[in-house]
């Protein structure tokens, strides 16, 4: 199975929380492949700055466990449409979440997250 791990999932994994155990267990199955959308790296860097964490160490962990998905112009355009549609249902649905959802639909994979915006969406493993 292919999974997109979002920023929230990575952070829970890094702090070793109970929620993060879900991602850790998925890493153990060699059949699973993991992706990280590059815009999530900016969110993780922001978290590192706020929490005084070593981003260089964490990005090495991310890169050793997942492939980084580059974003191109048309991805942003598609994400803007996805954000518009999601905002009809969730008023605070953001552009980064829309980008992750856009890539999930494009690649027909699953998202791993504990972000409330993904809770009731299909193809999401929600980390409770």
Detailed description of the structure:
Helix 1 crosses helix 2, helix 1 crosses helix 3 and helix 5 crosses helix 6 (95-107). By secondary structure, the chain is of the alpha/beta class. The chain contains 6 helices and 5 strands, in the order E-H-H-E-H-H-E-H-H-E-E. The protein has helices at residues 7-15, 20-28, 38-51, 55-65, 73-86, 95-107, and strands at residues 2-5, 33-37, 67-69, 110-113, 124-126. It has a single domain, classed as 5'-nuclease (Rossmann fold, 3-Layer(aba) Sandwich). 55% of the residues lie in helices and 15% in strands. Strands 3-2-1-4-5 form a 5-stranded parallel beta sheet. The two termini are 20 Å apart.
Task: List descriptors.
single chain, 128 residues, alpha/beta, Rossmann fold, five-stranded parallel β-sheet
Put the structure in a nutshell.
Helix content is 55%, strand content 15%. It has 128 residues and is an alpha/beta fold. Helix 1 crosses helix 2 (20-28), helix 1 crosses helix 3 (38-51) and helix 5 crosses helix 6 (95-107).
What would you give as the CATH superfamily?
5'-nuclease
Query: What's the tally of helices?
Result: 6
- N-to-C span: 20 Å
CATH architecture: 3-Layer(aba) Sandwich
Shape, per Cα inertia axes: globular
Oligomeric state of the chains present here: single chain
* Structural class determined from secondary elements: alpha/beta
The SSE string, one letter per element, is: EHHEHHEHHEE
Low-confidence stretches: none
Number of strands: 5
Total of domains = 1
Overall pLDDT level: 96
Q: Which sheet architecture does the biggest sheet show?
A: 5 strands, parallel
CA radius of gyration is 14 Å
Q: Helicity range of the residues?
A: 40-55%
Strand order of the largest sheet: 3-2-1-4-5
- Assign the CATH class: Alpha Beta
């Amino acid at each position: 199975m292919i999974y997109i791990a979002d920023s929230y999932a990575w952070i829970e994994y890094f702090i070793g929380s109970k929620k993060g155990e879900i991602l850790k267990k998925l890493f153990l199955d060699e059949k699973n492949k993991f992706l990280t959308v590059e815009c999530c790296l900016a969110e993780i860097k922001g978290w590192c700055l706020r929490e005084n964490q070593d981003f260089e160490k964490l990005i090495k962990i991310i890169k050793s466990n997942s492939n980084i998905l580059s974003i191109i112009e048309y991805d942003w355009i598609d994400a803007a449409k996805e954000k518009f549609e999601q905002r009809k249902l969730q008023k605070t649905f953001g552009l980064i979440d829309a980008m992750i959802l856009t890539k999930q639909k494009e690649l027909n994979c699953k998202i791993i997250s504990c972000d409330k915006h993904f809770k009731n969406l299909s193809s999401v493993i929600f980390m409770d």
